[in-house]
Amino acid sequence: MDLNDKKATRESFGEALAKLGSENKNIVVLDADLAGATKSGIFAKEFPDRFFDMGISEQDMIATAAGLSTCGKIPFACSFAVFSTGRAYDQVRNSVCYPNLNVKICGSHAGITVGEDGGTHQMLEDINLMRGLPNMVVFSPSDDVQTKWIVNEMAKTKGPQYIRTCRAKSPKIYDENQEFEFGKAVQIGDGKDATIFATGICTSEALKAKEELEKEGINVRVVDLFTIKPIDEEMIIKCAKETKKLISVEDHNIIGGLGSAIAEVLTDKYPANLIRMGIKDMFGESGKADELMKKYNIDKDAIIKCVKE
Protein backbone atom coordinates (compact mmCIF):
# COMPACT_ATOMS: atom_id res chain seq x y z
CA MET A 1 0.00 0.00 0.00
CA ASP A 2 1.33 3.40 -1.00
CA LEU A 3 0.20 6.03 1.52
CA ASN A 4 1.58 8.81 -0.70
CA ASP A 5 -0.39 7.78 -3.78
CA LYS A 6 -3.98 8.75 -2.98
CA LYS A 7 -7.05 9.16 -5.15
CA ALA A 8 -10.78 9.26 -4.48
CA THR A 9 -12.64 6.32 -5.98
CA ARG A 10 -15.10 8.77 -7.56
CA GLU A 11 -12.19 10.11 -9.65
CA SER A 12 -11.16 6.59 -10.66
CA PHE A 13 -14.76 5.88 -11.64
CA GLY A 14 -14.90 8.93 -13.91
CA GLU A 15 -11.58 8.12 -15.57
CA ALA A 16 -12.57 4.50 -16.19
CA LEU A 17 -15.92 5.56 -17.61
CA ALA A 18 -14.27 7.93 -20.10
CA LYS A 19 -11.87 5.19 -21.21
CA LEU A 20 -14.79 2.81 -21.69
CA GLY A 21 -16.53 5.42 -23.82
CA SER A 22 -13.79 5.22 -26.45
CA GLU A 23 -13.95 1.42 -26.48
CA ASN A 24 -17.70 0.88 -26.56
CA LYS A 25 -20.09 3.22 -28.35
CA ASN A 26 -23.08 1.74 -26.54
CA ILE A 27 -21.92 3.26 -23.26
CA VAL A 28 -24.10 6.23 -22.32
CA VAL A 29 -23.95 8.25 -19.11
CA LEU A 30 -26.68 10.08 -17.23
CA ASP A 31 -26.20 12.43 -14.29
CA ALA A 32 -28.48 14.44 -12.03
CA ASP A 33 -26.78 17.85 -12.16
CA LEU A 34 -23.71 16.62 -10.24
CA ALA A 35 -21.31 15.66 -13.02
CA GLY A 36 -18.47 17.70 -11.53
CA ALA A 37 -18.77 15.93 -8.19
CA THR A 38 -19.52 12.38 -9.36
CA LYS A 39 -16.79 12.78 -12.01
CA SER A 40 -19.06 11.63 -14.81
CA GLY A 41 -18.15 15.01 -16.24
CA ILE A 42 -14.91 13.47 -17.49
CA PHE A 43 -17.00 11.30 -19.82
CA ALA A 44 -19.22 14.26 -20.73
CA LYS A 45 -16.24 16.27 -21.94
CA GLU A 46 -15.06 13.46 -24.21
CA PHE A 47 -18.46 12.26 -25.45
CA PRO A 48 -21.04 15.06 -25.11
CA ASP A 49 -23.44 13.34 -27.51
CA ARG A 50 -23.67 10.31 -25.21
CA PHE A 51 -24.02 12.25 -21.97
CA PHE A 52 -27.38 13.34 -20.56
CA ASP A 53 -27.68 15.81 -17.71
CA MET A 54 -31.14 15.06 -16.33
CA GLY A 55 -31.13 17.94 -13.85
CA ILE A 56 -32.18 17.49 -10.25
CA SER A 57 -34.49 14.65 -11.26
CA GLU A 58 -33.00 11.36 -10.06
CA GLN A 59 -36.19 9.34 -10.48
CA ASP A 60 -36.48 10.45 -14.09
CA MET A 61 -32.78 9.66 -14.57
CA ILE A 62 -33.19 6.04 -13.44
CA ALA A 63 -36.36 5.53 -15.50
CA THR A 64 -34.65 7.02 -18.58
CA ALA A 65 -31.64 4.76 -18.04
CA ALA A 66 -34.01 1.78 -17.92
CA GLY A 67 -35.50 2.82 -21.24
CA LEU A 68 -32.10 3.28 -22.86
CA SER A 69 -31.07 -0.22 -21.76
CA THR A 70 -34.00 -1.73 -23.68
CA CYS A 71 -32.57 -0.13 -26.85
CA GLY A 72 -29.19 -1.85 -26.55
CA LYS A 73 -27.41 0.93 -24.70
CA ILE A 74 -25.35 0.39 -21.52
CA PRO A 75 -26.40 3.28 -19.28
CA PHE A 76 -24.44 4.43 -16.24
CA ALA A 77 -26.70 6.59 -14.05
CA CYS A 78 -24.77 8.76 -11.59
CA SER A 79 -25.59 10.90 -8.58
CA PHE A 80 -24.78 11.15 -4.89
CA ALA A 81 -25.56 7.85 -3.18
CA VAL A 82 -28.20 9.50 -1.01
CA PHE A 83 -30.10 10.42 -4.20
CA SER A 84 -29.38 7.58 -6.63
CA THR A 85 -30.40 4.91 -4.12
CA GLY A 86 -32.62 6.82 -1.69
CA ARG A 87 -34.63 9.32 -3.68
CA ALA A 88 -34.90 7.01 -6.70
CA TYR A 89 -35.43 3.74 -4.80
CA ASP A 90 -38.87 3.07 -6.31
CA GLN A 91 -37.51 3.43 -9.85
CA VAL A 92 -34.45 1.30 -9.08
CA ARG A 93 -36.70 -1.40 -7.67
CA ASN A 94 -39.56 -1.41 -10.18
CA SER A 95 -38.03 -0.01 -13.38
CA VAL A 96 -34.59 -1.65 -13.18
CA CYS A 97 -34.48 -4.67 -10.86
CA TYR A 98 -37.97 -6.07 -11.40
CA PRO A 99 -37.51 -6.36 -15.21
CA ASN A 100 -33.79 -7.20 -14.64
CA LEU A 101 -32.51 -4.50 -16.99
CA ASN A 102 -28.89 -3.73 -17.85
CA VAL A 103 -28.59 -0.49 -15.86
CA LYS A 104 -25.48 0.56 -13.93
CA ILE A 105 -26.00 2.86 -10.96
CA CYS A 106 -23.25 4.91 -9.33
CA GLY A 107 -23.68 6.24 -5.82
CA SER A 108 -20.94 8.81 -5.28
CA HIS A 109 -20.17 10.58 -1.99
CA ALA A 110 -21.24 7.58 0.09
CA GLY A 111 -20.60 7.15 3.81
CA ILE A 112 -19.58 9.38 6.70
CA THR A 113 -16.47 10.43 4.77
CA VAL A 114 -18.54 12.86 2.69
CA GLY A 115 -17.46 15.02 5.60
CA GLU A 116 -18.58 18.64 5.67
CA ASP A 117 -21.76 17.94 3.66
CA GLY A 118 -23.26 16.61 6.90
CA GLY A 119 -25.85 14.06 7.92
CA THR A 120 -28.36 14.74 5.14
CA HIS A 121 -25.82 13.80 2.47
CA GLN A 122 -23.84 11.10 4.29
CA MET A 123 -25.57 8.03 2.87
CA LEU A 124 -25.14 5.23 5.41
CA GLU A 125 -27.92 2.96 4.19
CA ASP A 126 -27.23 2.44 0.49
CA ILE A 127 -25.61 -1.00 0.77
CA ASN A 128 -28.62 -2.12 2.82
CA LEU A 129 -31.07 -0.78 0.23
CA MET A 130 -29.27 -2.13 -2.83
CA ARG A 131 -28.31 -5.59 -1.60
CA GLY A 132 -31.91 -6.20 -0.56
CA LEU A 133 -33.08 -5.94 -4.17
CA PRO A 134 -33.38 -9.12 -6.27
CA ASN A 135 -31.07 -9.14 -9.35
CA MET A 136 -28.89 -6.29 -8.01
CA VAL A 137 -25.11 -6.67 -7.74
CA VAL A 138 -23.34 -4.41 -5.22
CA PHE A 139 -19.72 -3.22 -5.47
CA SER A 140 -17.76 -1.17 -2.92
CA PRO A 141 -14.24 -0.56 -4.26
CA SER A 142 -11.25 0.17 -2.04
CA ASP A 143 -8.80 1.95 -4.33
CA ASP A 144 -8.06 3.32 -7.79
CA VAL A 145 -6.98 0.06 -9.48
CA GLN A 146 -9.91 -1.91 -8.11
CA THR A 147 -12.46 0.76 -9.05
CA LYS A 148 -11.31 0.80 -12.66
CA TRP A 149 -11.48 -3.01 -12.84
CA ILE A 150 -15.02 -2.95 -11.44
CA VAL A 151 -16.24 -0.32 -13.92
CA ASN A 152 -14.95 -2.44 -16.80
CA GLU A 153 -16.56 -5.53 -15.30
CA MET A 154 -19.87 -3.70 -14.96
CA ALA A 155 -19.87 -2.83 -18.65
CA LYS A 156 -19.21 -6.46 -19.62
CA THR A 157 -21.73 -8.08 -17.28
CA LYS A 158 -25.46 -7.76 -17.94
CA GLY A 159 -27.99 -6.88 -15.27
CA PRO A 160 -28.57 -4.24 -12.59
CA GLN A 161 -25.39 -3.23 -10.75
CA TYR A 162 -24.53 -0.64 -8.13
CA ILE A 163 -21.10 0.85 -7.39
CA ARG A 164 -20.46 2.89 -4.26
CA THR A 165 -17.72 5.53 -4.55
CA CYS A 166 -16.18 7.96 -2.05
CA ARG A 167 -15.43 11.66 -1.96
CA ALA A 168 -12.39 11.26 0.32
CA LYS A 169 -9.08 10.12 -1.12
CA SER A 170 -7.70 6.70 -0.19
CA PRO A 171 -4.25 5.14 -0.69
CA LYS A 172 -3.42 2.92 -3.61
CA ILE A 173 -3.57 -0.67 -2.31
CA TYR A 174 -3.12 -2.76 -5.44
CA ASP A 175 -0.63 -2.65 -8.30
CA GLU A 176 -1.73 -2.71 -11.91
CA ASN A 177 -1.14 -6.47 -12.21
CA GLN A 178 -3.49 -7.41 -9.37
CA GLU A 179 -6.06 -9.99 -10.45
CA PHE A 180 -9.64 -9.63 -9.26
CA GLU A 181 -12.54 -11.99 -9.66
CA PHE A 182 -16.23 -11.19 -9.67
CA GLY A 183 -17.79 -12.17 -6.35
CA LYS A 184 -14.44 -13.13 -4.79
CA ALA A 185 -12.74 -11.27 -1.95
CA VAL A 186 -9.02 -10.46 -1.77
CA GLN A 187 -7.14 -11.81 1.26
CA ILE A 188 -4.10 -9.79 2.34
CA GLY A 189 -1.88 -11.65 4.81
CA ASP A 190 -2.26 -15.00 6.54
CA GLY A 191 -2.46 -13.93 10.19
CA LYS A 192 -4.26 -16.30 12.54
CA ASP A 193 -4.98 -13.89 15.43
CA ALA A 194 -7.85 -12.13 13.69
CA THR A 195 -9.57 -11.48 10.38
CA ILE A 196 -10.54 -7.91 9.56
CA PHE A 197 -13.24 -7.91 6.88
CA ALA A 198 -13.30 -4.48 5.24
CA THR A 199 -14.75 -2.68 2.27
CA GLY A 200 -14.33 0.68 0.56
CA ILE A 201 -12.27 3.36 2.30
CA CYS A 202 -12.06 1.25 5.48
CA THR A 203 -9.86 -1.31 3.72
CA SER A 204 -6.83 1.00 3.82
CA GLU A 205 -7.53 1.73 7.50
CA ALA A 206 -7.58 -2.02 8.17
CA LEU A 207 -4.24 -2.41 6.38
CA LYS A 208 -2.70 0.41 8.43
CA ALA A 209 -3.92 -1.36 11.58
CA LYS A 210 -2.46 -4.63 10.33
CA GLU A 211 0.99 -3.04 9.94
CA GLU A 212 0.88 -1.50 13.42
CA LEU A 213 -0.28 -4.73 15.05
CA GLU A 214 2.51 -6.73 13.42
CA LYS A 215 5.04 -4.54 15.23
CA GLU A 216 3.56 -5.84 18.48
CA GLY A 217 3.57 -9.46 17.38
CA ILE A 218 -0.15 -9.61 16.61
CA ASN A 219 -0.72 -11.13 13.19
CA VAL A 220 -3.99 -10.47 11.40
CA ARG A 221 -5.28 -10.84 7.89
CA VAL A 222 -7.33 -8.27 6.00
CA VAL A 223 -10.08 -9.47 3.67
CA ASP A 224 -11.24 -6.90 1.11
CA LEU A 225 -14.88 -7.68 0.33
CA PHE A 226 -15.25 -5.31 -2.62
CA THR A 227 -18.17 -7.35 -3.93
CA ILE A 228 -20.82 -7.24 -1.24
CA LYS A 229 -23.47 -8.98 -3.32
CA PRO A 230 -22.86 -11.73 -4.25
CA ILE A 231 -20.64 -12.09 -1.18
CA ASP A 232 -17.71 -14.50 -0.98
CA GLU A 233 -19.16 -17.13 1.37
CA GLU A 234 -16.23 -19.48 0.90
CA MET A 235 -13.73 -16.85 2.09
CA ILE A 236 -15.84 -15.91 5.12
CA ILE A 237 -16.14 -19.54 6.27
CA LYS A 238 -12.43 -20.15 5.63
CA CYS A 239 -11.47 -17.20 7.83
CA ALA A 240 -13.92 -18.24 10.54
CA LYS A 241 -12.20 -21.61 10.69
CA GLU A 242 -8.63 -20.31 10.57
CA THR A 243 -8.60 -17.21 12.81
CA LYS A 244 -9.35 -16.54 16.48
CA LYS A 245 -11.35 -13.37 16.01
CA LEU A 246 -13.62 -11.95 13.30
CA ILE A 247 -14.16 -8.20 12.83
CA SER A 248 -15.96 -6.28 10.08
CA VAL A 249 -15.43 -2.57 9.47
CA GLU A 250 -17.36 -0.32 7.12
CA ASP A 251 -18.27 3.31 6.45
CA HIS A 252 -21.96 2.42 6.64
CA ASN A 253 -24.66 1.70 9.17
CA ILE A 254 -23.93 -1.61 10.94
CA ILE A 255 -27.54 -2.56 10.21
CA GLY A 256 -27.87 -4.12 6.77
CA GLY A 257 -24.33 -3.43 5.54
CA LEU A 258 -21.16 -5.48 5.19
CA GLY A 259 -21.26 -6.78 8.77
CA SER A 260 -24.85 -7.93 8.39
CA ALA A 261 -24.04 -9.70 5.12
CA ILE A 262 -21.14 -11.56 6.78
CA ALA A 263 -23.26 -12.41 9.82
CA GLU A 264 -25.91 -13.93 7.57
CA VAL A 265 -23.33 -16.26 6.06
CA LEU A 266 -21.97 -17.25 9.46
CA THR A 267 -25.46 -17.89 10.84
CA ASP A 268 -26.36 -20.17 7.93
CA LYS A 269 -23.06 -21.92 7.25
CA TYR A 270 -20.58 -21.72 10.16
CA PRO A 271 -21.79 -20.11 13.41
CA ALA A 272 -19.08 -17.80 14.82
CA ASN A 273 -18.90 -14.51 16.71
CA LEU A 274 -18.47 -11.38 14.58
CA ILE A 275 -17.68 -7.91 15.93
CA ARG A 276 -19.27 -5.33 13.64
CA MET A 277 -17.59 -1.94 13.40
CA GLY A 278 -19.49 0.79 11.59
CA ILE A 279 -21.91 3.63 12.21
CA LYS A 280 -24.06 2.57 15.18
CA ASP A 281 -27.54 3.14 13.75
CA MET A 282 -27.40 6.92 13.72
CA PHE A 283 -27.05 9.83 11.32
CA GLY A 284 -23.75 11.57 10.74
CA GLU A 285 -22.70 15.17 11.19
CA SER A 286 -20.57 17.79 9.50
CA GLY A 287 -16.80 17.53 9.92
CA LYS A 288 -13.57 16.54 8.22
CA ALA A 289 -13.54 12.97 6.90
CA ASP A 290 -10.62 11.74 9.01
CA GLU A 291 -12.05 13.33 12.17
CA LEU A 292 -15.42 11.68 11.57
CA MET A 293 -13.83 8.28 10.99
CA LYS A 294 -12.10 8.66 14.33
CA LYS A 295 -15.21 9.85 16.16
CA TYR A 296 -17.37 7.04 14.79
CA ASN A 297 -14.67 4.43 15.47
CA ILE A 298 -13.94 3.16 11.97
CA ASP A 299 -10.32 4.32 11.63
CA LYS A 300 -6.99 2.56 12.16
CA ASP A 301 -6.83 3.26 15.90
CA ALA A 302 -10.33 1.92 16.52
CA ILE A 303 -9.53 -1.26 14.60
CA ILE A 304 -6.31 -1.80 16.60
CA LYS A 305 -8.22 -1.34 19.85
CA CYS A 306 -10.90 -3.80 18.76
CA VAL A 307 -8.35 -6.47 17.81
CA LYS A 308 -6.60 -6.13 21.19
CA GLU A 309 -9.74 -6.20 23.34
Describe this protein's structure.
It is built from 13 helices and 14 strands. It is α/β, with parallel strands linked by helices. The radius of gyration is 18 Å and the shape is globular. It folds into two domains: 171 residues, Thiamin diphosphate (ThDP)-binding fold, Pyr/PP domains (Rossmann fold, 3-Layer(aba) Sandwich), CATH 3.40.50; 119 residues, Rossmann fold (3-Layer(aba) Sandwich), CATH 3.40.50. Strands 3-2-4-5-7-6-12 form a seven-stranded mixed sheet, sandwiched between helices. Strands 9-11-10-13-14 form a five-stranded mixed sheet, sandwiched between helices. A two-stranded antiparallel ribbon has the order 1-8.
Which descriptors would you attach to this protein?
Rossmann fold; 2 domains; 7-stranded mixed β-sheet; 5-stranded mixed β-sheet; 13 helices; 14 strands; 40% helix
In brief:
By secondary structure, the protein is α/β, with parallel strands linked by helices. It is built from 13 helices and 14 strands. The strands form 3 sheets. It has a 7-stranded mixed sheet with strand order 3-2-4-5-7-6-12, sandwiched between helices. A 5-stranded mixed sheet has the order 9-11-10-13-14, sandwiched between helices.
